[in-house]
Amino acid sequence: MLYIKCPHCGWRSQNEFSYGGDATVKRPELGKEVSDQEWDDFVYNRKSLRGKHWELWQHLSGCRQWIKVERDTATHEIFKTLKANEEIS
Amino acid sequence: MTQSFRLENIGLINRNKKLSFKFNGKAYYGYEGDTLASALIANGVHLVGRSFKYHRPRGFFGAGVDEPYAIVQLYRNGETEPNIKATEQELFEGLEAKSVNCWPSVNFDIGAINNFLKIFLPAGFYYKTFMWPKSFWFKVYEPFIRKAAGLGVASTKHDKERYEHKYEYCDLLITGSGPSGLASAYAAAKNGARVILAEDKSRFGGTLLTSEVNIGNQSGKEWAESIISELKEMPNVTVKNRSQVFGYYDHNMLVMSERISDHLPKTKKFHPKQKLWYIRAKEVLISSGSIERPIVFGNNDTPGVMLSSAAKEYLKVYGVLVGKNPLIFTNNDSGYETAIEFQKNGISPIILDTRKDPKSEIVDEAKNLGINIKFSYVVVAAQGYKKVKSADIAKISEDKEQLGIIENIKCDCICVSGFWTPTIHLASQSGNKTKFREDIDAFVPGTPKQNETTIGAANGTFTLEETLKNSFETGHRLSKEITKNDNKTSFPNVIEKKSTAHDKFWCVPLPKGKNYKRFLDFQNDVAVSDIEIALKEGYRSIEHVKRYTTLGMATDQGKTSNLNGLQLVSKIENKVVPSVGHTTFRPPYTPVSIGAIVGREVGKHSKPTRKSPMHLWHEKNNAVFVDAGVWLRPRYYKQGDENLFEGSKREAKNVRTNVGVCDVTTLGKIDIKGPDAAELLNRVYTNAWLKLPVGKARYGVMLREDGIVMDDGTTTRISENHYHMTTTTAQAANVLSHLEYYLQLVWPELNVNVVSTTEQWAGAAIAGPKSRELLQKLFPKSDVSNEGLPFMGYMEGDLFGVKARIFRISFSGELAYEVNVESDNGNFMWEKIIEVGQEFKIQPYGTEALSTLRIEMGHVAGSELDGRTIPYDNSLEGLLSKKKDFIGKRSLNRKAFIADDRQKVVGVVPLDKKTSIPEGSHLVKDSNAPLPNPKLGYISASCWSVEHDNPFSLAIVKDGKNMIGKKLFVMSPLKNKIIPVEIVSSHYVDPKGERVRS
Lengths: 89, 998
Hints:
The complex is a heterodimer.
Chain A: E1 3-6, E2 10-13, E3 18-22, H1 36-43, E4 52-58, E5 66-72, E6 78-83
Antiparallel strand pairs in A: 1-2, 3-4, 4-5, 5-6
Chain B: E1 14-23, E2 26-32, H1 36-42, E3 49-50, E4 57-58, E5 71-76, E6 79-85, E7 95-99, H2 113-116, H3 125-129, H4 134-148, E8 163-175, H5 179-190, E9 195-198, E10 214-215, E11 218-219, H6 220-233, E12 237-240, E13 243-249, E14 253-259, E15 274-286, E16 290-292, E17 305-307, H7 308-318, E18 326-330, H8 334-344, E19 350-353, H9 361-368, E20 372-375, E21 377-383, E22 390-395, E23 407-410, E24 413-417, E25 420-422, H10 425-429, E26 433-437, E27 442-447, E28 452-454, H11 464-483, E29 494-495, E30 519-521, E31 526-527, H12 528-536, H13 542-549, H14 562-573, H15 577-580, H16 594-598, H17 615-620, E32 623-628, E33 631-637, H18 644-657, E34 660-663, E35 668-673, H19 677-684, E36 697-703, E37 709-719, E38 722-727, H20 732-746, E39 753-756, E40 761-767, H21 771-778, E41 794-799, E42 802-807, E43 816-822, H22 826-837, E44 843-844, H23 847-856, E45 904-910, E46 922-924, E47 937-945, E48 950-957, E49 967-972, E50 977-984
Parallel strand pairs in B: 1-7, 8-9, 8-15, 9-12, 15-28, 17-24, 18-19, 18-24, 19-20, 34-44
Antiparallel strand pairs in B: 1-2, 3-4, 5-6, 5-7, 10-11, 10-29, 13-14, 14-15, 16-25, 21-22, 22-23, 26-27, 30-31, 32-33, 34-40, 35-38, 35-39, 36-37, 37-38, 40-43, 41-42, 42-43, 45-48, 45-50, 46-47, 46-49, 47-48, 49-50
């Protein structure tokens, strides 16, 4: 079970969180014309990286904040966690 | 009956407490502190089971966790449990156990015929033979194999025992209380670290209990006892015996199973049987020791052949002789220690040492005691069927290839020592890249991936002095990093006998003309010849060889067999062992009971049960409940002998003719506040929300980004910047997360807050033509006329002194309202509605009538909004705004979603107006068409229409918009039904929606 540092609450076990997918995906602006390809890339196409990966988790059984987590998908090592409003560097 | 194999003056058992027990129906006795194994051996019992494949007789091989043979079915306090190791099960008064994998009995086992057919049962036998003819598998082979095989029987009864889970944190978790575990725990604890020390046996001390050493002028055992008693007194230390750390998971989380009551005849009141500990440790010290390796020779599975360290443990811990005429077969000095213990207790052993001329203090001691030692000698084969009677021995050449003349010598046990295998399971589970050490012929932990350090014998350190020195240092160093303290503990003086190098010999060659079975894996009956066949047939990867031959795949996980298997593969393949590599170690290290894994989350306790504030009223009024997610909801209120069909029909009919009331507390409720609340709703819902006036409700549909309908519900504008959203019961949690996702990550600029208020409000839906008259009586001060409170209107009212919210919304197609009060007033509200409603013939209605009412009016719900349908499919396309963008809109122009014959919801009525249509049935054009009959759609929901008094269903059908009026067939192969039906509009009641607006 992973041990995740919630930027709001501190270290918590994985079972308090729910996974939310790739954190680097940006939703196209509302009302903006987007091509089929751009839309598909937003809705469906994911890289499924091996290695370092920025992903979203929600601290569901805690502060309910969505957070950004940089995790190695092969080793589960977690390098950094950010609040929702902090930019991935 | 006397215990002829029990010694008088040695052992750690409590001779003042005799315990009686039964094995295979026969009564014996042992002492407190015995294991089932030691008590049986004390009574001269060595035949305890039959092997898995050949049903060969099985005795005891080890004295603990590594035991491959002595697996029994245990009976305790009216319960039974399979897969119990006799070497681990502590004796208690009244214990009963039986042999497994033998039929009809352990002494005469019909499956043993496999032993004589063994030429037909080589590696992969099951894969090859039972494949043909195919039909034989089910009829002949499988039933036979099932009857003959198996390692016990699982109980089919409900387990009355309690199992608990515990979460714990510590600085250092130390796994094993041998010399390295004790020393490191002591050093770390003295330095202020929070330490958990886990020992799988009942006694602490590990090898210190059996070895002849001196630490700080105390015996090993005394030193261990003094350290443990000091540790137990320290507030920063948790010491646990009967506790096996069996799994090492990510981020230094380890799981330990503590057997709290297994050693007692009966679990004490309020105590659990076992407890599972989830431990998050900053550092892990693996001090799990090592397991002795066998040497492979002919018939080496005969009862009486066992590990030499086990023989020593039975002697020193339990005062039990495994034989009175022992033969010690060794390639290293450890065998001598066992021989010396026998000699000291009046038993004369013979040592066969594969080495030519070893020189060490231990060998000298054995010589001085006058023990008969034969150098360069091996056991060629054990003789005896149910117990060792003699051994064929021979001199072996220097190159270890040629055997001399075979002699037969009498013996009643053969104690084998093939050197030591470090227990690296936990380190390997943690991701440690293990490395092979030539000097000890075994793998040891290499580079750690997580915060773990392996010490002592588990790390290949086999001298006590070095072990203690390293362990004190490691315990101090790791604790210093965590606590920043620097309290050093003094290192005790150690006296131990020096040993010399072992011989790399591990397998005795077959003598000419003999075809003895030489076993590698004792539990799964994998012999040298099986591995040879697998390699001949082309298997190369050790992982494949393992699966083909089942080497190391038994419940003992190959603790005594893996390395010898690797030696063999590397020898045949002419490779070095490290390039063959070992198979993956996976948790659990030892079998863990399902009960412990499940813990308290059994049956109803696996999820919380949620009840509405009106639950007690429902119970008192004969409600029959149904699980709706985690909620318990009334399905119908039983009157007399009514069944579900009759009861729900009565309730639904009463709504259509008079008035009914339904508990709708379970609906998800989300409070939305903030200046941008309307903007959020406008983006989340498919329809327009910016112009909804205060005091009005609106129905909305929300999509996922892929265009699929996520949920529906009504949202009401309570005040300028305050909205009350309702969701379906099932999607309440998901919708909240969904809103939080967009507010926190996608549109953080929106100034809105959302919070779940599902539990804060109790809700009652009042529906039926008389509902307004009832409402007027409930709220005499409010104007609830059609003008005062029109359809989709909202107002606040005073319900006999209680503040209430009144919504004019309908889920039934009737004139209807929903009243919400604070949860604490829920029951008051409900009782008032029932009381005042009497004159209007009010009846409560449950979820079944609720469904009937919504189905016949064509209102889509969970069975249509099933995560596979878009708004069009549900005839909700009218709610899609063309003027604004919303979540999921861009996906709706996908080709499949705009296809001309896209599926759509329709109504379905059987032509005979009598036959009920099973939900999930398929719709086809021609019921006689050849299979696979093209499917046009499926029945999503069925009811008995109370309006028309005939069955009615909703279906999602291809090209639904052009299907109205068509005659099709409903087919249900599961219910074996073919029903001719007509497709009609999904709005079977009041299609123009006049009633809800009346």
